[in-house]
Fold this sequence. Notes:
Among the domains are: 38-72, no CATH class; 389-565 and 626-721, 3-Layer(aba) Sandwich (Rossmann fold), CATH 3.40.50. The radius of gyration is 31 Å and the shape is globular. By secondary structure, it is of the alpha/beta class. It has 17 helices and 21 strands. Pfam families: BD-FAE, LRR_8. GO terms for molecular function: hydrolase activity.
Amino acid sequence: MASIREQIALKRAAARNSPIKPRPGYAPPPVELEERTVPGQVSRARRSGKLDLGSMSLDAIPCEVYTDLLGIPEHELTVPPPTPVPSAALATPTKAKQVEYDSFGRAIAGLSLDDDSEPARRLAFGTPEPKKRWSEPEELTALRAPDNMIRELEFEIGLFGGLKSVDLRGNKLTALPNAFADLLRLNVIDISDNALTAFPPSLLLLPELESVIMTHNAIKTLDLTEPVKPSDEGLAYGTGFLITKFEREAKAPKTVLPVLRSLNLSYNQLSTDALAGLAGKTPLRLRVLNVGNNALEGILDASAAGIDHTRMPELASLVLGGNKHLNGIEGDVAAGAAIDTEGCAWGSTGGAAMSLGASPRKPRASSPGKPVGYTPAPGGPTDIPLPTATITFATHPAATFDSLPLAVEMDVYLPKDASPATPLPVVVWWHGGGLLQGNKENLPPHLRRFPNKGLNGQGVIVVSPNYRMAPQAAILETLADADSAVNYVRTKLNDKLAAIGESARVDPDRIVVSGGSAGGYLALMAGVPTPQRVPDADVGGHRGPLGWVPKGIAVFYPITDLAHQFWQTKTDPVPWWGKSVPHEAARPHINPRDPPVATAVSGGPRSILYPYMLQEALFPNLLFYNQRSVGSGMDSFRPDAHTLSATTRLEIVAKREAAMPPVFMSYGSIDDKIQPLEPTVEVLQSTKGETEVEVVEGGDHAYDENPAEQCEAFYTWLERVL
C-alpha cells in the first residue's frame, strides 16, 4: 500500500493532468479595452497631471481640456463649442406614443407609458437637468498634442501655469499665442514640424525655459528685442493672496532667454544675416545651438551672429552642418566648443569637434572619427540629401513618474518617381556612438544619395532608425528597438507610406541590414540567425527578429566583441580625443535612473560619453548596468558581455554549421576607436555564408562620413546580393 506522501503526490499529478472544469454558474468578466478618446485622456489627466492628445486628428485643443481641467464654463471660452442640434430636429417621424394621463385627466406631455428613462422623468416632473459636478484636478504639468492638425491655440492655454513640458510637434501652427508668456514654469517645449516663420516672442521671458526644439519649420527671422511680458494673472499663479501686484512685477523676468541651455533651429530657412537676431549685450547661458540645414552662406561673423564667446560664453556645441554654402566662420567662440560642419562647403569632411579662433579654420586632422592619411577618389557627387519622411515606429511608456512616453523614430529616404506596383529593396542602417550617443541623422552621405542613385536600374529605400541608448536603457532594450525597426519595415512601413501619400513600396523579401560602429553591432545581432536549439542563456536572451533572415548584412567598422580586452583597458587621456574628460562633465549623462533617450545631438554634451567610456574602461558596465536577469527560478540567467557579443553569435553559427546570409565588412587600416577586427574576420570566414571584407588603406573610423566617399565595393556587393 502506498504511503500517505505517495498518495498525495499521485493526487497532485492527477489534478495537474486533468482538464480544468469551470465552476458552475461562473463566467469570467469580459475584458474591455479602454478606447483612447479625448474624454478618457482628460479623465486620466485629472489624476496624473499629464495630458496626452497625440495622433488624434485634432484641429484644435478640445474644449473639454479647459472646461474639465480649469472649470471654465463653455460659454466663457474664447472659442465656445458649437451649439448642438436638438435631437428632436433630427429625428424621423415615428409612430405616435401612447400618452399617460394624471388623476385629473390631464395629459403628461412627452411621456409615454413605456418610457421610464431619467430624461423622461425630468420632463414629466419639470426637474431641470443637473449640472456636471466639477472637482479640483491635479495640476497639469505636461501637455502632449503631437501629430495632429492644430492651426491655432486659444488664449486659455496660458491658464495652465503649472506646465513644465509642452509637445506640439507635427501640427500646422504658424505662431504661438501671447498667453504662452504666462507659463512661467515651462522647462521644455517642442514645436518642430510646424509652420512657424519667426521665433515666438511669448517664449523670450520664460524664467525656467531650458530647451526649445523648433526644427523643420519655416523660420526666417530671429527677433529677441520685443518679448511678450507675462500678464498679472500669470505672475499671480501659485503666489498666494498675500503677494501684491507690485511684488509680483518686481519678480518678473527682465532678460530674454534667462536660463535657456539648448536651442534647436535646424531645418529652417535662416540666413546668415538672420542670425544677427541672436546678438545682444547680455550673455546667454546656451550650451547647445543647432542651426544646421538652414540657408547660411559665405563667412559667418561670430560676433555679428551673437555666437561669440562674449554672447555665449558657455557654448559647448554649435551645429552648422548641412549649410552647403557656408564657407567659414570668423571670430572667437567659447573655448572648447565643439563645432559640427558636416555638409558645409568648409569643413566638408564630416562632423568634427573643433575649436575656432579669430579666422576661418579647417577641421583638425586629429579629430575623432576623421580619416587620417586617406582621401576618397575625386570626381564623385558630394551632395547630402535630406530624409523624405520621419516616422515613429515604436513608443515606450514613461519610465519615471515625471517623464513622458518615449517615441523612437526612423528617417526614411525614398527615390523619386517610384511606383506602388514595383516594390523596392531596402537598406536598414543603424548609427554608431557605442550605444551611448548619436542619432539617425548620422546616416553617411553616400547612403543618403543611394535611393536616387539606384541599383540594377531601380531605386532603393534607405531607413535610418534611432534606438534607446545606454546606460539608461538596458542592452536588451536597445536590441529590442533594432528588432522592432526591422519588423516595422517588413510589416507596417508600406501602410504608413500609403497613408502619407508616398508612392514607394517596400519589398519585404529584399532587406539588407547595415550600420557603422555600434550600428554595425546592431546589424549583426539583428541579421545573424540564431540556431533554434541553442539555449537562450547561450545567446544572452536575444534571438533577433523571429522567423526572418535578411538578404545580406553590411557592416562598417563594427563593434563586435563586447568582452574584448580593448574595452577593459583604461586610457587617460584617449589619444585621439587629446584630453581627459572630467567626471563632472560625464556624470549628468550616466545616471542609470534617468529616463532613457533615443537620440542625442551630434557634437552635443552627450558626445563626450564614448571617449569617457574608453578613458575609464566602462563599456560593459554602462551597457549592462540596468540589465535584469532573464527568465525565472532555476532557469533564470543574467546576460553578459560574452553571450551578447556578435563574435559569440558567429561562433555558434559556425560550430553548428548553420546557414548564414552574405556578409560585407569594411573598415580602415588605422582605426583605433574600436577593438581589432581581424579575429572577427576569422570567425566570419569560418561560417558557411559568403563573406567579403574590404580593408581601406589609411582609412580611420567613420571614413565613409566624408561626402566625397562613394564606397564602390559596397555597392558592387549590393548589386550581387539584391
